[in-house]
User: What shape does this take?
Amino acid sequence: MKTLLHICCAPCSIKCVETLRDEGIEPVGFWFNPNIHPFTEYKARKNTLTDYAAAIGLTLAVENNYGLRTFIEQVCPDFDDRCGYCYRVRMEESARYAAEHGFDSFSTTLLISPYQKHDMIAAAGEAAGKQYGVSFLYRDFRPRFREGQATARALGLYMQKYCGCIFSEEERYQKRKPEKGTQ
Assistant: This one.
């Protein structure tokens, strides 16, 4: 089976690629993440994935689209419902690419994170697959999340501290406890 694997970052890809390879599926990685901001974060994640893919012999297709303006335009004014757009745009582009390049199926490493909206990702993948006539290969990779993160740390891979969008970065800093003497 020829499978395209949308990859959000190298750490999340580790156990997804390994799981698929254990099943006899040799995926082709696909980088398309116009939600990741700021540009320095986008570049760090992309470069880490490029290096990691080369190290493990994973073919990688890169759609280099830093899409801050489009992302903001699409989620405005309902910033709290941004995840739906984010998953949909990445699954649609993955399905389109898979269909246009002769893949039988596509999947995503987003399915490994216990912090993502798993059911929403799966629904977006299924809908995109139907739209483009390519199968969405669903896998619940979450049981291997911690193991993958430990492997990423051991390999010294860059590991992000938030989902990727500018709003998740904002939330990350807002959740920190105030420093003494401030409030």
Remarks:
- The chain has one domain: 3-174.
- The two ends are 56 Å apart (CA to CA).
- The chain has seven helices and five strands.
